[in-house]
Amino acid sequence: MTFVKKNLLFVISLSFFINIPISISAISGDEEEKKIKQMEEEALQDRSNYEIIFDGKKIIERNRITKSEKEISSFLVSPSGENIVYFEEIYTYRPSEEAKYIGVDFIDYTRYRVHIFNKKNKKKVIDLFYSYVFGWSGKGKQKEYKNRVSWSPSDAYMILSPEGWAGAPGSEEYTVVNILKKRIFTIWMTRYEWLDEHIIVYDYTGDGFGHIIMRDLRINVEKKIKELEGDQKQGEGYDMYFLRGLRRIADGKNKIIKESTDDYTYFLKGVIPDKKLIIGRQYNNCITSERENYLRMTEPEAIGSFVVDLNGNELYKIFISSK
Amino acid sequence: MVKKLILLVIITLFFVIVKDVKCQDLTAQTTTIVTILVPYEVAYTTYPVITLDNNGNPHIMVLYNDTPYTCDYFDLRHIYWTGTDWVDKTLLYRFTSWFGDTFPGVIFDRTNQMHIAHFSRFYGEPDKVLYYGKLGINTVIDDDAGNISFRCIDVDSSNNPYIVYANTDYGDLKLAKWTGSNWWTKVISPWVIDSKETRYHGSASIKIDHNNGIHIASWRFVRKLPWAPEEDEVVYFYSPDGETFQEVVIDKDAEWVLHDINIDRFNVPYMIYVKDDKYKQKEVLYFVNLHTLSKEIIDESNSFNWPISLEFDSQNIPHICYAKEVYAPEIGYDVINTYLAKKENSVWNKEELIKYTDEISNLKIDNKGAIHLVYIEGNLRYFFRGKVKVEDTIPPAKVQDLAIADCGVTANSVTLTWTAPGDDGNVGEIVNGKYIIVYDKNYPMSSTEIVISTNTKPGARETFTVAGLEQGTEYYFAVKTVDDVGNVSELSNCVNARTLLDVPYFSQGALDWKDEYIVDGDPQKTIGRIGCAMTSLAMIINYYADHHPDTEMRKKILKTDPGALNEWLKKNDGYDNDGNVIFDRIEKYTNTAVLIKEKVYQRNDIKVNDDLKDKLPPILKVKETHFVVAVGSCPAVGYKINDPAWRERKDLEKYNYNYKQIRRFKLGPGDASSLSVRGRKKK
Q1: CA pseudo-torsion sign B24, B25, B30, B36
Q2: What percent of chain A has pLDDT over 90?
Q3: What are the residue ranges spanned by the domains of chain A?
Q4: Does B511 touch chain A (CB under 8 A)?
C-alpha cells in the first residue's frame, strides 16, 4: 500500500470519529472500473486453464495444462433431477473504503460463471455469467447463491434472482434461462408465480405504480392483465395479491373459491393455477400504514381485490377471511 | 556667409529627419528597426557610442563633422530618445578630432544622471580628457591624455564616476575618480622605458563590480629595444579598493589589440579581445573568464573593426557584438559586416546582424532583451531589435470563436475559451495587453466588465473563468482585446450560458445514513442501496430551503439530509409497500411551499429546460431504477446532474445521455399551519 493510500485511509478513519466530510478521493470511478475490468480479465485468463465437465455423477474441474482433475462436490440439481447447475467462482471484488465512497456499485460481489448441464447426456446446456452482490448486508455471504436459483414447474426454465445492485425499489431484473432452447433473457419483475409450465405471471412495480403481466416464455411475449389506463399517479396501480395465513377466498356472495387447511402457507400466491385465474389488487395511495391495515384485515372487505381470467376480465370481487 | 548658410541648412535638415522618426516608440513585438538619425549627405559622423538611461531610452554620442569637406572640426553631439521624441544636443563645439581610440564614454548612474568622458584636442593645445555631467560641463580631467574607449567610464555604488585612460604622449595607464569633492587621479601602470624595452598603454576599459571592485582591461605596447617588432599584450588589472592593483597578462605576442570588459549578474568579470597574432597572421576574437582565465575563441578574420563590445542580458547570457571584414561575392570585394555572438546552452551562436557597415558603436541590451546599436552605413543609423510598437494604430482582431469551455459551468461561474488575436489584427505578440470580458444577464451586454492583463501570442488558446455569478441564471458573454497602446478590438461573438442550479449534493452512500433502513429490518432496503430517489428529494428540499424565491417560504422549509428525511418519510406515509418514496410528501414536508407539478412518462427536454430556466430543478429517472437531480445543462454533455449514487457523475454520459421520466416540482402557496415536521440536527 502506498504512503498516499495509507494516509487517505487514515483520513477516512478519522472522519468516522470527528465527522469530517471527505471531499477528496485518491482514486476516481473510472480508475476503479478499469481496475475491476483488469481483475476480471486476469481472472478469466487464469480460469481459461480449466474446463468444467460433468461425468454423469459429479462435476470435475480439469486443468488443461497439467491434465490434473479436481472433483467439485458443491452443485445444484433441478427439482426434476434433469439439470445440474454449478457456480464456478471467477473472482470476488471487495472494494476499498475509498471506492465505496465514490459510487454505489463499488460493493462486495462475487462473479460466477454458471454452468448448466443435462444430467442424462452429460452435455453442457449453456453457461452464463452472474454476479452475486452480497455487500449490502456487510458480511459477505456469497455462498447463498443457491437460494437465487428457481425453476419452472417442469424445469424447462431456470430463473436467477436479481444480482442485487443498487437501485430504486420496485421491479428488478431477473435472468431467465430457457433450458430447451438454450436461450437467456431478462425480465423486470417484482413478484412472480408460474401459471403453468411456460407461463409466468408477475407484477411490474416501480416508482409507486404497478401492472400485472403475463408472459409466455415459449415465445417470450407479454400480455398486460391489469394496468391503469390514462395518467398513472404514484401510489396507484395493480399488483398481485400475496397474503400470509389466510385460509380461504370467497366471492362477494360468500361463495368459497379456494380454501386452505394450513394457516401458515402462502395461500394467496397471486395465481390459482388449476383454474387459470389471477388474484390481484388495485391499490390507491398505497402507503406503508395502509398496507399494514390490509394485512391486519379479518373482515371480508378487502377493497379492490379481485380475481381475473387471463384476459383481465374481472370474475369476482374477493372476500378475504381468516376464519 | 556661405558657410553660415550651409550650416543653417544642415541643422534644419537634421531636425527634419529627426522629426520623421519621432513617432517611434518601444514595446509590443519583436522586430528590427533601423532609424536614420543623420544623413550622410549633409554631415559626416564618426565614433558612435550608445548607452541606455534607466528608462531604457537610447542615448547616442557621436562626433559630428562640422566641416564636411575638410574634416577640420567636430562637434560632440548627444542624440537621445525621450520616450516620445528624439532630441539632439551639442555638448562640445568645434574641436579637432584625432583618428585614434577616441570613442566617448557615457554611462547613467543609479539616479539616472548621465556621466560622459570624452577626448578633445584643440589646435595648439595638448590632448585632453574631459568630463561632462552633473559634476561639471566639459571639466578637464587630464590635460595631457586622450586614449579613451567607449567603456572608459563607470560609477560605483555611490554614483561616483571613475574614468580610465592613457597618456597620449607617454602611455601611462591612469585612473581618475571623483571622491565626492574633487577628482583624484592615480597611475595604475606607468610608461616604462629602459635599456631593454619600452612599454606604454593604449586605451582601456573599466567596469566597477557590485562590491565596488575595479576591473580594467587594457592593451600595452611592448617593444624590444633598440627596434624590434611590437609584442603587444592584453592586460587585466583588478583592485578591490582603487588603491592597489593586481596585474594579469592575459595574452601577448600581438601586433594590435581591441578589447572590452564587463561583469555578469553574479559579479564575474569577463573580457573580450581581438588579438592580431603576429605569428598566425590573422586576428582572433577571444572571450575570457577573468576569474578562471579560461578562454574561448569566438571568431577569426583577416580584419576586425573597432569597437568590440560585451554585454549580458537579463538572463545572464553574454552577447558579443563585433564587425569584421568578409568577402562579399555579390559585389565582388571585401566589406565590413556586423555580427552578434550569443552563448546559449554552452554554444556560441553567431548571426550576421548588419551588412555593409562603415562603423559600428558598442552594443547595449535593455532589460527586456532588446538590442540597441548605432552604426554608420552612409548615414548614421540607429539599429533596434526587440519588442516595439511602430505607430501602432492597428487594433487586435475581433475574437470570433468565443465559446463556453467544455462543461465549464458551475452554480456560480462560467469558464470561457477563445483564440488569442495578435497585437495588430492577427499578427504580433500582445505584450502588456488586456482582455475585457463583458457580460450581462441581458443581451446585448453592457453592464459588467472584467479586465485581465495578458501577454500572449496569436493563436494561443485562452481561458478565463467568470466567477461570482448567480445560480441558474442565463448570462451573455463577449470579449474584446486591447493592445498595449490602447487600440481596442471589436467585440467578439456573443455566447450565452446558464449557471447551474445550486442544488446541494447528498450521497446515498454517505457513512452517516447509508445503512439506515428504508424498509425496517430488510438489509436489502437501506438508503445506500435503494435510497436514490429519497436522497434526490432531500437535495430538492434543501435547494428550496436556500433558494425559494419567497424568503418567507424558505423559513417554512426545514433543511434536512437523507437520514433525517428517511425517518420523517417513514413516519409520514412517505414510502409505498416496496420502499418507493412518495414524492408528493414533499408538499407536506415543505408546508406546501413546494408542490408536485407533474410526472412525465418519457423524455421531454422542453419541460426539463423550462424547469431549469425557471430554477425549479427536476428529478430525472435515468434508468429503470435510478433517480438523479438535474441542475443545469451545457452544450457538450447535455444535462448536468447531482447523482446521489455516484459522486463523480456530473452528467448523463453513463446513462447514454438519456432519461426515461421526469418528476417536476413547482412553487406552492405555503401553509404555515401545517408546519409540523422536524429535521434532524447534523451530527
Answers
A1: positive
A2: 45
A3: 24-182
A4: yes
Return the residue of B nearest to A166 by Cα.
B529
The per-residue pLDDT for range B57-85, each reduced to its tens digit, is: 999 988 877 665 665 677 888 999 887 78
CATH number at residue B468: 2.60.40.10
Confidence of residue A171 (pLDDT cuts 50, 70, 90): confident
In this structure, the answer to whether residues B479 and B612 fall within a common structural domain is: no
Task: Give me the CATH number covering residue B568.
Answer: 3.90.70.10
Secondary structure string (H, E, C) spanning chain A:
CCHHHHHHHHHHHHHHHHCCCCCCCCCCHHHHHHHHHHHHHHHHHHHCCEEEEECCCCEEEEECCCCCEEEECCCEECCCCCEEEEEEEEEEECCCHHHHHHECCCCCEEEEEEEEEECCCCCEEEEEEEEEECHHHCCCCHHHHHHHEEECCCCCEEEECCCCCCCCCECEEEEEEECCCCEEEEEEECEEEECCCCEEEEEEEECCEEEEEEEECCCCEEEEEECCCCCCCCCEEEEECCECCCCEEECCCCCEEEECCCCCCCCECCEEHHHCEEEEEEEECCCHHHHHHHHHCCCCCCCCEEEECCCCCEEEECEEECC
What is the chain A residue with the closest CA to B505?
A23
* Per-residue cell: B132: 561632462
Compare CB distances from A169 to B528, B578, B621 and report the shortest one's residue: B578
Is residue A205 pLDDT above 90, yes or no?
no
Segment A22-68, tens digit of pLDDT: 444 467 889 999 999 999 999 999 999 999 999 988 999 999 899 99
By DSSP bridging, strand A319-321 and strand B619-623 are unpaired
Residue B364 has pLDDT above 60, yes or no: yes
Structural domain tally of chain B? 3
B480 and B552 share one domain:
no
What ipTM describes this predicted complex? 0.78
Q: Mutual orientation of helices B532-547 and B562-571 as an angle, nearest 10°?
A: 100
Cβ of B639: how many Cβ atoms within 10 Å? 24
Give me the total of CB pairs closer than 8 Å, taking one residue from chain A and one from chain B: 121
CB contact under 8 A, A104 and B515: no
Range of the domain at B119: 98-301
> Rounded to whole angstroms, how far apart are CA atoms A202 and A17?
46
Task: Kindly state whether residue B494 falls inside one of the protein's structural domains.
Answer: yes
Judgement on whether residues B430 and B565 belong to the same structural domain of the protein: no
Among the residue ranges A281-285, B426-430, B439-443, the one predicted with the least confidence is A281-285
CA dist list (Å): B373 to A191, B192, B239, B287: 93, 38, 31, 20
- How confident is the model over B33-50, as pLDDT tens digits? 777 777 665 557 778 899
Q: How far apart are CA B353 and CA B248, in angstroms?
A: 33
Taking the C-alpha atoms of residue B215 and residue B234, their distance in angstroms, rounded to an integer, is 13
Q: B532 and B466 in one domain?
A: no
Is B610 inside any structural domain?
Answer: yes
Are residue B119 and residue B217 in the same domain, yes or no?
yes
Mean pLDDT of B553-582: 89
Same domain, B254 and B110: yes
Percentage above 70 pLDDT, chain B = 89
Do B163 and B247 share a structural domain?
Answer: yes
The answer to whether A29 contacts B532, with C-beta atoms less than 8 Å apart, is: no
Instruction: Report the pLDDT value the prediction gives residue B67, as an integer from 0 to 100.
Output: 65
Are the Cβ atoms of A233 and B599 closer than 8 angstroms? yes
Instruction: Point out the residue among B576, B624, B647 whose CB comes nearest to the CB of A287.
Output: B576
Amino acid B537: pLDDT: 97
Nearest to A167 among B583, B626, B683 (CB): B626
Residues A123-151 as b/e (b if ≥16 CB within 10 A, e otherwise) read ebbbbeebebbbbbeeeeebeebeebbeb
- Quote the Cα angle for B612-B616-B619, to 5°: 85
